[in-house]
Amino acid sequence: MPKCKINGQEVEVEAGTTIIEAFKKLDSEIAHYCYHPGLSVAGVCRLCMVEIEGNPRLQIACNTVVQDGMVINNNSEKVKETVKWGLDFHLINHPLDCPICDQAGECELQIQYMKFGQYDPEMAEPKVKKNKVVDLGSKIVLDSERCILCSRCVRFTEEVSKTNELGIFNRGDRSEIGTFDGKPLENDYAVNTVDICPVGALTSKDFRFRQRVWYLKNKETVCPGCSTGCNVKSYYNEEGLFRVKPRQNDEVNGYWMCDKGRDTYKFVNKENRLLEPKVGQSGQWDSQEVDGVMSVMSTKIDDAVKSAGSDKVALVLTGQYTSEEYASMLSYFVGHLKSKNVYHWVNNPESFDEFDGLLLRGDRNPNTKGLLNGLDQHGITAPWSDLETKLNAGDIEVLLVAGPEDPSVFPTLTEKVSLFSKAKNLFWMSAAKTEAADSATTKTWQIPLKTYAEKEGTFVNHKGIEQKIQPMVNIVDCAQTLSEVASALSGQKVDHLGSLVKDRKTNHFINHHGGGL
Amino acid sequence: MEIKLLSEHYDKPEFQGLDGYKKLGGYEPLKKAFQMQPKAIIEMVKESGLRGRGGAGFPTGVKWGFLPDNGEPRYLLCNADEGEPGTFKDRLMMERAPHQLIEGMIISAFAVGSHKGYIYIRGEYNEPTAILQKAIAEAYDAGLLGKNILGSGFDFDLDVYQGAGAYICGEETGMISSLEGKKGQPKLKPPFPAVQGYLGKPTIVNNVETLAAVKYIIRDGADGYRKHGTEKSAGTKLFSVSGNVMKPGTYEVPLGYKLMDLINIECGGLKPGRKLKAVIPGGSSAPVLTAAECADATMDYENLAQKGTMLGSGAVIIIDDTNCMVDMLKVILHFYHHESCGQCTPCREGTGWLHKIVSSIYSGTGRLQDIDLIQQVADHMAGKTICALSDAAAMPAVSFVQKFRSEFEFYVREGRSKVKGAVDAQV
């Protein structure tokens, strides 16, 4: 393995490692825009200049492979001067849009300027005018004046999504990113180009102008959009979630995530949530307290078991919950009730095994594997058709359903609710407010559940990798986890108030000026 | 004194056709080459001291030696994208002596073991393209191209590919991108074309004049060729002389020839009453020489390098005292601003910036500090990019400002040219 010296510090790297990777290994700072570890090397921003002893010309670190014995620095006056000018070349035609630019606060050009620039511009001549607010497709807007032509987005559509929608048109300082007529930037991974855009040239239509990024906090979590379990960061404030961005995990998702996964913040927010327990049927509903519903549920189950045996009670689970929740529900059912009447609701059996070749899987649940593991452990094998038969025969007294957290991935929701309505008493547990649940035709109690953003736990992805989620917000105070439901049913005290988000700072900007959600 | 190897029969119209070409000794060197081992040809080219005639002046035989021995197909590309302002020598050869290029390519392909070649010709060269295509067809009909050429067992196919007029496609990797059907943009090096070139395969790119010269090295032997020129700059060179001389045109002289002789003897001197002000010796990207520097300049790689400029493509632009240097630099920078491919930031932004600064001086709104700024901007463009276009814009800018600073200062102060009779900007 070749050894080299970087700014006086010795480092050993694997053969074939580039200098920029060696810098990253040392956590040593090196300016760059066009380099991205998930894409091919373009070598065009010319910022990652380094001085290599014995070579009179500065070299770019992204395309130079470390050789044994190399002595490299990027802190000599020569390099600093070059990087300063490199930054200047990027800035001379860059518009002063920062106050109105959505990237402000997380713009690499801005960060670089605040670190190394902060001088008056040398250029007295007028800047080049280019197209602004260019519609690239349903998800993305381009501002060509802000674009620094690093070509990351173009390389992404060439190399990762392999859809080739983007290109650089014209040449010299008239160059602009663009799409071909009639072929807009529409693919399931398009918004990754917004993430990798170092400046505010590509912005997401879904997120732009909704929040200044410095008013958002973020936490690492796992995308619940499908069984791949992409590692993501969710951005939120006390109003709710605003966006989801991928974070690197070579085992799972590399650097990317799909655009469907980016929508998984929406069902967390208030407007899509079941906000309180309610009881009723066929559109006639009355509000309830959590404690009251829990005790009714407990009584109904106990009565049914006592009078007709545990066979009259059934539980339906989907792959949307954490392994911990499955464990507590199953131990309540199998251990406490001595019932194996538990069924796996496969939300989309036709497309369940599909895979787009990159990240998105047909199993649009984060934890099907966790559920199957739980069922396995308890030796539960009953097929779905058994439940259908029992329901059709009127054999189910009490049916508990842990329904969808994200109803958009349940294409036959209404159909299923009408099947569940054949039970005498239906306890419908779900985070979502749905017309389907409201159309239940038997006596139904709806109990709000927490979403992945409000609880901790484990998702097991399609490969069997266990990944943790963590709570970040508390949108619906009375919402329960399945574990809380199970402990209530088995006679323990219910703590229905969320214990999360302890220090809620007031965001004056949002409260007094901004729109919020 | 002109020594005519490549241009010997330019004045004979029949030299354009295969029959006329053959009567004047054409395709005899090819037969001789087929009697040799390919490696021996490469050695002979190395010994001849032939250096690339396109601009960079890299030793041709050494370049050929870079091809890896990995059994992959190899490509031989002829760079006929003659775009450097001031250069027109290749055009003349392709028009007057197309078979000379074809023969040079067959010999070179045989030497480097390539079975497929392309002539990448400049987009604007419609007439030379037609002439070349006709000559290639003649060569195929006569068994000089295609399978088993002249019974030698060697196969070689040749096509002409016309570019779309971008200067950057004359840069060898830009040319390869364009030939691959992509946007004409230079590629990162390494890997170099000899290892991974056209379609990712080992590729040799040589200039028209270089490939044609190979024919004469075979005909006369390495020593015969070396007889002309200097030790480090062997052979003859075609110079495209333009600007303020009585007889502008293409002249073939041995390397090491005196610049002033080229101007005064071959080109008939300056126009009456004019004084020499400056010479750009190697195309618009070469740093300019003052009249004083021209006095002892010789046209070869080493002498011009010593003087801080370069032989380049051999485009000699003669500037007399009626020309305004501010105006000239503005024209040159307009060209590089227009032609920068836009890939690397310093070039994309810098070429435009330089052009704007000089334009603002030219239109009378320049500031004195702009003169230093030109140098600073140019300094930070040169050597910082994937290809040399950035340097090509920076070098004339730096040399014009350094050597003719008083003209720039006068222009800034007075808002008009120091040169009497020069056309001032309409402010």
Question: What characteristics describe this protein?
Answer:
heterodimer, A: 517 residues, alpha+beta, Ubiquitin-like (UB roll), Alpha-Beta Plaits, Rossmann fold, 3 domains, seven-stranded mixed sheet, five-stranded mixed sheet, elongated, disordered C terminus, B: 427 residues, alpha/beta, de novo design (two linked rop proteins), four-stranded parallel sheet, 17 helices, globular
Explain this structure to me?
The complex is a heterodimer of chains A (517) and B (427). By secondary structure, chain A is α+β, with helices and mostly antiparallel strands. Chain A folds into three domains: 3-91, Ubiquitin-like (UB roll) (Roll); 124-270, Alpha-Beta Plaits; 272-489, 3-Layer(aba) Sandwich (Rossmann fold). Helix content of chain A is 24%, strand content 18%. Chain A has 14 helices and 22 strands. Chain A has a seven-stranded mixed sheet with strand order 15-14-20-19-18-16-17, with helices on one face. Chain A has a five-stranded mixed sheet with strand order 2-1-5-3-4, sandwiched between helices. In chain A, strand 8 and strand 9 form a beta hairpin. Chain A is elongated. The longest helix of chain B has 19 residues, at 208-226. Chain B has three domains: 13-226, 3-Layer(aba) Sandwich (Rossmann fold), CATH 3.40.50; 236-320, Ubiquitin-like (UB roll); 325-414, NADH-ubiquinone oxidoreductase 51kDa subunit, iron-sulphur binding domain (de novo design (two linked rop proteins)). The radius of gyration of chain B is 22 Å and the shape is globular. In chain B, 56% of the residues are buried. Chain B is 44% helix and 13% strand. The mean pLDDT of chain B is 95. Chain B is α/β, with parallel strands linked by helices and 427 residues long. Classes of the chains: A alpha+beta (517), B alpha/beta (427). The interface between A and B is medium-sized, with 36 and 33 residues.
